[in-house]
Amino acid sequence: MVSLSGHSVYHLYAITVWFCLLSVSQAKYVNVALNKPVYQQSSYEPAYFKPDDDLYIYDGAGDKSSGDKMDVKADGSKAVDGRKSDPSRDGDQCAVSYVSQTATLWVNLTSIHSIHHITIYFRTDNDLQKFNNSLAKFVLGFSVHVSNTTDKLLGTLCYKDYTFTLDTIPSVFTTTCHVHGQYVIYYNERLPGVAYPDEYSKLVDSALCEVEVYTCGLGYYGAECQQECGHCRDLTQCFHTNGSCLTGCEVGYHGEICKEPCPHGFFGLDCADRCKDTCDGCNRFNGSCDSGCNPGWQGYDCQDAKQFSLSPACDQGSFGDNCLQKCGHCRDVNQCSNIHGTCLTGCDAGYQGDLCKTPCGQGYYGAECQQECGHCRDLTQCVHTNGSCLTGCEVGYHGETCQTPCPYGFFGLDCADRCKDTCDGCNRFSGSCDSGCNPGWKGYDCQDACDQGSFGDNCLQKCGHCRDVNQCSNINGTCLTGCDAGYQGDLCKTPCGQGYYGAECQQECGHCHDLTQCVHTNGSCLTGCEVGYHGETCQIPCPYGFFGLDCADRCKDTCDGCNRFNGSCDSGCNPGWKGYDCQDACDQGSFGDNCLQKCGHCRDVNQCSNINGTCLTGCDAGYQGDLCKTPCGQGYYGAECQQECGHCHDLTQCVHTNGSCLTGCEVGYHGETCQIPCPYGFFGLDCADRCKDTCDGCNRFNGSCDSGCNPGWQGYDCQDACPYGLFGQNCTGECNDTCTGCNNVNGLCDRGCHPGWRGEYCDIACFVH
Question: Is the pTM here over 0.85, yes or no?
Answer without folding.
Answer: no
